[in-house]
# Entry
Amino acid sequence: MKTKLVAAQIGCGKFAWQQDLHNLSTRSDVTLKWVCDVDPGSARAAAGHFHVPEKTTDFMEIVNDPEVDFIKIATSHEAHLPIIEAAARAGKHIFCEKPMAMYDEEGWKIIRAVRRGGVKLCVDLNRRMSPAMQALRQRWLAHAASPKHHPWRYIEKVRELLPEENLPHLLIRIQDESSSYGLGHLNPLTGGGEIIGESVHWLDLACWFFAPQLPCEITAWGSSRLSHGIHLRFDRGACMTLDFSCSGTFDFPKELYEVTDNAALFRSLCFVENDYYGVPGLDREFFPLQEDPFPEMGDGEEAYMRKYRAHVENSTNSKLLERTRPMILDKGHLNMLDGFIRAVREDLPSPCDELAGFRATYLAQRAIESLELKRTLSVPVEKITPCIL
Ligand SMILES: NC(=O)c1ccc[n+]([C@@H]2O[C@H](COP(=O)([O-])OP(=O)(O)OC[C@H]3O[C@@H](n4cnc5c(N)ncnc54)[C@H](O)[C@@H]3O)[C@@H](O)[C@H]2O)c1
# Structure
């Protein structure tokens, strides 16, 4: 294996500038050789800023370059399938932004392309790789395997435990500010709405969190393109409830996670702090930011809020700030990239493979059907374990 893998970035929009172009161009084990965007100005700007030698508006130039080992895709969603099919046929490994596909048939075709090409595909459903979520799952698993309770815990002795008592539940509260949404996720042809574009993150997180349980039933309500809720039930009783409001504010963290199980609460506050309740001896944990302009201000949620205030103070454009002086939570992007590169180098399983990418898309599609029909729908096992070679 080469000491440096040769990479190409396809799609040079907002996300690529925030994560990919920086992350790929600063790694010592990767040479970022190409940038590609259908908009020549975007390709030119990315090549100039990140010192990338080759630029193009046609991804086939990259696919036909024998030096390229892997591509990173951060285009709009509908462009994934043709790029992945061509890249897999040419033996290139693929790191693809979420959602992997916009609907099930596209997902099946991507699975087929990747498996026939014998390449690795990693979908950037990054929450599962964030240090905070990894810790949350480990603490929950340890409690589930061997529950410990405070000596003062009160237990009523008048009845037996009921069958549906003490089942694990993951509550995900998202509050977001939709004024920031361009057409990205909203255009039905290229985005498909917030459930397909964003909630795939939390559908995937729930599947990863409760694995090996499989999702079996889904109920959704609200609007598929903006605010909505989803309840996902797993085959051995675990549940995830997502409450996603687009009427919130950037003045407060976007994501809150709470797991309850067997008289305990495991709580994660915007990827910087985990708090644990009901389990003796489990202390709170702090997690550093991916990019922190104020490390001297400390760690944890309170410090994060103070940092955020300092960050936006005197600014009139928070989006511009992201490029000039980034302050980025560690939502798992770097760990996912590490995991993908390790999978390619050492022929290991992808940290979020084509099946996981398909499942998130299928569940999102099923949630939209549920919301439109206003009823609970099954998640058939044959749909989430497709047999494709
Ligand atoms: N994992 C995450 O947390 C996360 C966060 C934000 C965005 N994203 C994902 O990143 C992707 C891009 O989002 P964005 O906000 O940067 O959008 P964007 O519109 O700013 O950028 C997309 C870019 O892709 C280019 N493009 C479209 N089709 C192309 C093609 N066929 N070949 C080459 N370039 C093409 C467009 O010209 C544009 O510059 C989306 O899939 C989004 O879901 C992921």
Q: What stands out?
A: The chain has a mean pLDDT of 95. Residues 251 and 348 are 41 Å apart (CA to CA). The pocket of nicotinamide-adenine-dinucleotide is lined by residues 10-16, 36-39, 42, 59, 74-77, 79, 97-98, 124, 126, 184, 197 (CB under 6 Å). The domain at 5-125 is CATH 3.40.50.720 (Rossmann fold).
